[in-house]
Specification:
Layout lengths: L1 H26 L8 E2 L13 E2 L8 E2 L5 E4 L6 E6 L3 E7 L8 E5 L4 E5 L1
Parallel strand pairs: 1-2
Antiparallel strand pairs: 2-3, 4-5, 5-6, 6-7, 7-8
Length: 116
């Protein structure tokens, strides 16, 4: 009878270990989500998704709110995003600039702005 009790305790212990390992594997650690590349065609961008530029240099990642669409084609020198009919943001790589800044122009703002 002692052997039967010991066998059950060992079986229960193994079951607990198996359940703990299974739960740890299912969601115990968060996996890093990599940003998606921009769609190749004129397509609405999803607000909860992080996108990355592929062709534009220097590459960067970003998120948008509702209503944004990419304006293809993306190139190493130009990347454009549009919101609705009137709003558009263009990123340009300026050649020959000393500090290699990236400039962007907002059609709504009507002026050029730069970022390092």
């Amino acid at each position: 009878m002692n052997r039967l009790l010991v066998g059950r305790v060992i079986s229960l212990g193994l079951l607990v270990v198996l359940v703990v390992v299974a739960l740890a594997d299912c969601g115990g650690t968060e996996k890093e989500v990599k940003p998606r590349p921009l769609p190749e065609d004129d397509k609405a961008l999803q607000p909860a998704v992080e996108y990355r530029s592929e062709e534009f240099e220097p590459s960067f990642s970003f998120r948008v709110s509702d209503g944004w669409t990419n304006v293809p084609p993306e190139s190493s020198e130009v990347l454009a995003l549009q919101r609705g009919v009137m709003g558009q943001v263009n990123f340009f790589r300026l050649r020959g600039s000393v500090n290699r800044r990236v400039a962007y122009v907002s059609r709504n703002a009507g002026r050029a702005m730069g970022s390092r």
